[in-house]
Amino acid sequence: MLKEICQFVEEIYKLISDKGTLFYGPINVLPPNGIYLFFEKGQKILMGNREFDRVVRIGINEKPNNFGKRIREHYRGNIEGSVFRENIGWALLERDGYEPKNLYKTKANYKKQCSGGPLETLISKYFSEALTFKAFAIQYEKLVEYEKILTMTFSIRYQYKIWRGELDIKNWLGLYSYSRRDKIKKSGLWNCENVILINNFETLVKLNGLSIHSFEKVLRELSQKIVCL
Question: How far apart are the first and last CA of the chain?
Fold first, then answer.
C-alpha cells in the first residue's frame, strides 16, 4: 500500500504542476463546490528528480455552494470560522515568543479572546504574503470522500519522506502549531482531521478507504476539474 500511496501523491504533484499556476482571485470566478490545495512560501518538496511547491493544506467547502466564501474566510475571516486561520494564528504567536499555551491555556480561550482582534490582522497578512492555492471543481456529494483520500495519502507520504530524511520542514511555521497528538507537526500539513500517523512504515498494510481504485478515481476527476486562471 505504501508504494501505491507514494505513486498517487506523486501523480497529484505532476498534475498541479502542469495544469496552471498558483492563484488568489475574486470568489466569483471560483466554482460553487470544490477542493483546494494550499501552498506556503518557502516550502518545497522533491518528488523523483523534480522540485515542487509543497502542498500544506487540503480542504473543501463543508456547506453546499460555499466554496468561494470558504476561501475568503481563510484569507479575510476570523479564527472562530476557520480552523486553518486558528492554527496559523497560534503558530505565529508561538513563533514570536508569546507562549499561547501558557497565556490562554486552551484553544477555546484562545479563540474567544483573539477572535476579531489584532491577531486577525497578522493572520490575514500572513495569508496574503505566504499562502496561495489551487482549486478543483468537484460535485458536493464527492467532497468528503475525496478530501479524506487526499489528506490521508499526503500525510502518510510526507511522514515517510521525513522518516527517510528526504523532506526538511525545519523552517515551516507549522512546527509552532498546537494540535491533538501533534498531527500538524508530524504530518507536515495544516490538517488534523483525516491525518494518519504512522509509527512503523515497514508494517503498513491496507487502510480503510484507500485503494488503487479510489486513487484512480480521484486522480481522473481532479485532472478534468482543475480551475486554471
Answer: 35
